[in-house]
Amino acid sequence: MRDRIVKAIRMVPRGHVSSYGSIARAAGSPGAARQVAWTLHSSPFGLPWHRIVGAGGEIKLRGDSAFEQRLRLEAEGVTFRGRRVNMRLHEFRFPRPNKNSPRKKVRKTTRK
DNA sequence: AGACTGACGGACC
DNA sequence: AGGTCCGCCAGTC
Asked: Closest Cα to residue A34, out of A17, A11, A13, A55?
């Protein structure tokens, strides 16, 4: 599965970013956002790890790494809005394996 | 096997 | 904007 995640990540074009959740779905495992992060962290495969941010473009990294990621992204032309990325301009949408692309999740949990 | 943990996400408060 | 909770998945202890 790491393979699919990696593949998904590699399709994020330069200057764009994506979220863990999106990657997870693109990899075929919706809900495995954590796994994506984990995999990313354990695969220094020369992956564009800096292009992966949290939901809403938030950088969920810790201190130092977060800073580096931000620099890298800015170097690719990604702009920031405070501590998060301008998703409106840089979010990369993966082609849905299915039907149209209504919206991401179909709001479910009517509350836990 | 069970519990904890992590670069998460989304809903609530 | 910030904090809490529950749900997810895989790796470690």
From this structure: A55
Tracing tokens 């200057």 back to the chain, one arrives at A15
Asked whether strand C has any atom less than 7 Å from the CB of A88, the reply is: no
Average pLDDT by stretches of 10, chain A with 112 residues: 85 92 87 88 80 91 85 92 88 71 49 38
Return mean pLDDT, chain A.
82
In this complex, the nucleotide whose C1' atom is nearest to the CA atom of residue A56 is B9
pTM, two decimals, is: 0.85
A49 touches strand B (CB under 7 A): yes
Listed residue (A51, A64, A67) closest to A12, CA to CA: A51
How far is A98 from A78, CA to CA, in rounded Å? 29
Sequence-ordered list of residues with C-beta below 8 angstroms from that of A95, at least 6 positions apart, any chain: none
